[in-house]
Design goal:
The chain is mainly alpha-helical. The protein is built from 10 helices and no strands. The chain is globular.
Length: 197
């Protein structure tokens, strides 16, 4: 019953497609095997198990999301870069909800495929590059990265869960949120690292 040409990459893509359809937490090895037309045991020649598959999905998604953000922000700076970055993030989350959740969940990732995947490292470079236009330095950069991730993820997670039931369209709130973030980043308060508070 094993299908010729089965690879770790094909198993990962099948798992990622399934995650987008049913949710990352509902993906099982049996479902992935059925999708590929193979026995469950055939998968274990390519991935170590469900946690390894989830880690591989997270790395695939990080690569895809990073490529999308890189293309969106190329040649942009300041508010234009911020808006392009945020929109690319949100669009990826909308189009690939299961894969997106894999990038946000605490998943133990096998160091071997992680070392070969440029997505996570490139994501950090793109984020810091986008923020250079605001003249921020450490430790403020780390604080801003955490703020942006919390804001973007919080918005798309609430949106996906139907948390914005008010008649005002979420898109309007999204645009106002980006306006507010731009103003905040332009007027970021100086670090108070030396304060005792």
């Amino acid at each position: 019953m094993a299908r010729a040409g089965l690879t770790a990459e094909r198993v990962t893509v099948a798992g990622a497609e399934l995650a987008d359809e049913v949710g990352l937490d509902r993906v099982t090895m049996s479902q992935v095997a059925r999708r590929l037309g193979v026995r469950d045991a055939s998968l274990y020649a390519h991935v170590l198990g469900l946690e390894d598959l989830r880690g591989r999905i997270a790395l695939l998604a990080a690569d895809e999301k990073t490529i999308r953000i890189a293309e969106a922000t190329a040649g942009r700076a300041g508010k234009d870069a911020l808006v392009a970055f945020a929109n690319a993030w949100r669009e990826y989350a909308h189009e690939h909800p299961g894969r997106y959740m894999a990038t946000q969940a605490p998943i133990e990732i096998d160091p071997e495929p992680a070392a070969k995947a440029p997505g996570p490292r490139r994501a950090v470079e793109l984020t810091y590059g986008m923020l250079r236009g605001y003249g921020l330095i450490e430790p403020d950069l780390t604080d801003v990265v955490r703020l942006l991730r919390s804001t973007f993820h919080g918005f798309v997670a609430l949106e996906a869960a139907g948390g914005f039931a008010h008649q005002r369209a979420p898109q309007r709130s999204w645009l106002r949120t980006l306006d507010a973030l731009h103003i905040l980043l332009e007027h970021w308060p100086p670090s108070r690292e030396g304060d005792s508070s």
